[in-house]
């Protein structure tokens, strides 16, 4: 019997969602409607079964693919969560200060807890804080230049960037920064390491080396001196250079500390020279040193009542330090330094000056004894000639 008019009922589209019971019912319906023979029914059942099998396998395949994709999605999500936790752990427990910077204006977007401890600010306070507060003076310009350098080159570093803590203390940070992405946004990220102690130790070592060089140079000059005036001038210029002073001078104490003579000077104008060339002991800062044998200093002589010279005030001297030149517990001279800005020497600098004072004082005493012996020798020779 011809069954083609009903063949459309058996295509894959029609049997795609058909269950087994529905398929059997369809076969019985077709057999009854077309009065099919047993063989025709068998062929029809076989065809329908094949279509159902194909549909079943396709559903199983799609189900397996869906489960595979879900597992992959779950694994990727788990890996992402693990990576985020790992990053957050590193960020929170890093020994150095980590930071994220907005490259458009240099503002700090986020810092880790170590950064909060280092700067003394909370996360919110740092985000609200002005860059001029965190980076005092010229340091802000150096910081912004670093950010621009990272934007241009992808990497930048600043070995000694000064920052101001919440308590006002300043620290020196070594900064290393790179350009990166945070989601869809471009950021600058990096690390700040507090190297304040290292820099201080480095500066101390450099200063000690400079002091040793100065003391050795003074000793060499003393050993090879050709005259006291030349020796004092050379020593004074070396001391001014090392202490970065604007000028200075050396007084010699005469007549058992009843007079002071300016034996060497540098960068002192004529008005001041005329006023202090023969300064009396006991008056003014240098005169007090000559009498007491103790150092005298002033951060700003413009407001210091101990200053007696109006010429010095008119010359714009401000920072001042005077130390005794001593030999065998006697003051044989006074060395002084001045600056045109406010300045106070620290303890190490004063200690170095005092060591120089002992060294130069001994040289002065030795030179004066040598001159006295030469004078005595000339007198002896003159007396011998008269006796002859």
Concise summary:
By secondary structure, this protein is α+β, with helices and mostly antiparallel strands. The protein is built from 13 helices and ten strands.
Largest sheet: 5 strands, antiparallel
The main sheet orders its strands as 2-1-5-4-3
Count the beta strands.
10
Shape descriptor reads rod-shaped
* Radius of gyration computed on alpha carbons: 47 Å
Mean pLDDT: 81
CATH 2nd-level architecture of the largest domain: 2-Layer Sandwich
Strand content: 15-25%
The ordered H/E elements are HHHEEHHHHEEEHHEEHHEHEEH
Oligomer: single chain
- Helix fraction bin: 55-70%
CATH homologous superfamily identity of the largest domain: GAF domain
For this structure, the CATH topology of the largest domain is Beta-Lactamase
Text of the CATH class of the largest domain: Alpha Beta
Low-confidence stretches: 1-7
Q: How would you portray this structure in words?
A:
With 388 residues, the chain is of the alpha+beta class. It folds into 3 domains: 4-76, no CATH class; 94-194, Beta-Lactamase; 200-377, Beta-Lactamase. It has 13 helices and 10 strands. The strands form 2 sheets. It has a 5-stranded antiparallel beta sheet, sandwiched between helices. β9 and β10 form a beta hairpin. α2 (20-34) packs antiparallel against α3. The longest helix has 56 residues, at 38-93. Mean pLDDT is 81; it is low at 1-7. Residues 59-86 form a coiled coil. This is PAS domain S-box protein. InterPro entries: Biofilm_reg_signaling (IPR052155), GAF (IPR003018), GAF-like_dom_sf (IPR029016), PAS (IPR000014), PAS-assoc_C (IPR000700), PAS-like_dom_sf (IPR035965). Residues 83-154 form the PAS domain. Keywords: Coiled coil.
């Amino acid at each position: 019997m011809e069954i083609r008019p009903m063949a459309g009922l058996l295509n894959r589209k029609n049997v795609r969602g058909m269950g087994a019971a529905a398929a059997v019912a369809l076969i019985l319906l077709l057999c009854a409607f077309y009065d099919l023979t047993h063989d025709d029914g068998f062929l029809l059942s076989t065809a329908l079964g094949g279509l159902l099998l194909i549909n079943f396998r396709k559903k199983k395949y799609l189900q397996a693919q869906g489960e595979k994709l879900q597992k992959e999605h779950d694994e990727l999500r788990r890996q992402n969560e693990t990576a985020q936790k790992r990053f957050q752990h590193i960020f929170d427990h890093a020994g150095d200060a980590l930071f994220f910077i907005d490259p458009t204006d240099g503002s700090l977007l986020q810092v880790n807890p170590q950064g909060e401890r280092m700067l003394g600010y909370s996360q919110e306070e740092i985000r609200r804080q002005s860059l001029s507060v965190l980076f005092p003076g010229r340091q802000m310009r150096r910081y912004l230049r670093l950010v621009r350098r990272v934007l241009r080159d992808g990497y930048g570093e600043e070995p000694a960037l000064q920052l101001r803590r919440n308590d006002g203390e300043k620290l020196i940070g070594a900064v290393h920064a790179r350009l990166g992405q945070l989601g869809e946004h471009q950021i600058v990220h990096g690390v700040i390491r507090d190297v304040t102690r290292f820099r201080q130790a480095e500066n101390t070592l450099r200063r000690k080396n400079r002091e040793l060089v100065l003391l050795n140079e003074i000793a060499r000059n003393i050993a090879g001196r050709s005259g006291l005036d030349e020796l004092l001038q050379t020593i004074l210029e070396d001391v001014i250079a090392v202490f970065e002073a604007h000028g200075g001078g050396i007084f010699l104490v005469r007549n058992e500390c009843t007079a002071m003579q300016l034996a060497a000077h540098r960068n002192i104008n004529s008005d001041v020279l005329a006023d202090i060339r023969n300064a009396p002991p006991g008056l003014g800062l240098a005169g007090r040193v000559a009498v007491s044998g103790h150092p005298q200093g002033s951060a700003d002589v413009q407001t210091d009542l101990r200053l007696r010279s109006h010429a010095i005030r008119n010359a714009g001297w401000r920072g001042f330090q005077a130390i005794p030149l001593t030999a065998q517990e006697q003051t044989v001279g006074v060395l002084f330094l001045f600056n045109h800005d406010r300045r106070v020497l620290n303890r190490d600098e004063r200690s170095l000056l005092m060591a120089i004072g002992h060294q130069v004082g001994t040289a002065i005493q030795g030179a004066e004894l040598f001159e006295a012996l030469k004078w005595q020798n000339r007198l002896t020779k003159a007396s011998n000639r008269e006796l002859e």
